[in-house]
Design goal:
Blueprint: E1 2-3, E2 14-17, H1 27-44, H2 46-51, H3 54-67, H4 75-90, H5 97-108, H6 117-125, E3 129-134, H7 140-143, E4 151-154, H8 155-158, H9 165-175, E5 182-186, H10 189-198, E6 202-206, H11 213-217, E7 223-225, H12 228-240
Helix pairs in contact: 1-5, 3-4
Amino acid sequence: MSVANKKPVVPPKAILFDLDDTLWPIAPVIAAAEVLLHDWLTAHAPKVAQQFSIEAMRQQRLVLLEAQPQLHGNLIEVRRAGLRSAFAAAGEDPALIEAALRHFMAARNKVTPYDDVLPGLAWLQQRMLVGSISNGNADLEIIGLAPHFKISIAAADFGVPKPDATIFLAGCEALGVAPHEAVYVGDDLYFDVTGAQNAGMRAVWMNRRGSDAHLAAGVRPDAICANFDELLLWLQGQLED
């Protein structure tokens, strides 16, 4: 764990989390969901499956995101737009698109939290308000983690994605705390750390891979933690200030 040299701050009253790659690994889940989706397309929209591989549809979405970066806050809409384009090109019935998306989302929510997450959330619930702010499409009710969070904000519903300060401020407001009374924890230096700090919050980089990317990026998280044990240790120090 490393901590930036900063003046003492008030003890935090709330902590908010990113979800994907902070509370669970998401890449293998998405990869499996995309295989299941392609299998579904093979059975129900074969012309799409024949014309577009998983990789081809992934590249199509990347092009769309580059052209419309605001869609980072609504990734399911990116996937929907990609399917619309593929269905149109293949001459398949677009009425099947929503069923395809439901199939994908069911698999996308089959995540497995890191081993340290549930004990860590239980510890936190006894000491402060806990919330989440995500640009992703995880459904905490389906996953089974909703009881651990007092509030959860999804960028797709809110209308503005991270790193915009507005969504972080909304999370603080929903918990009834000022930004300087809240901590945000996430795995992304730009969307999570910089975004939260620009909103006046303390930001912890959950760096499970031991990366030093913050140095080249010129980002100074308030703390860098490799796991929940380190996060809770840092928080104990903050609570005692």
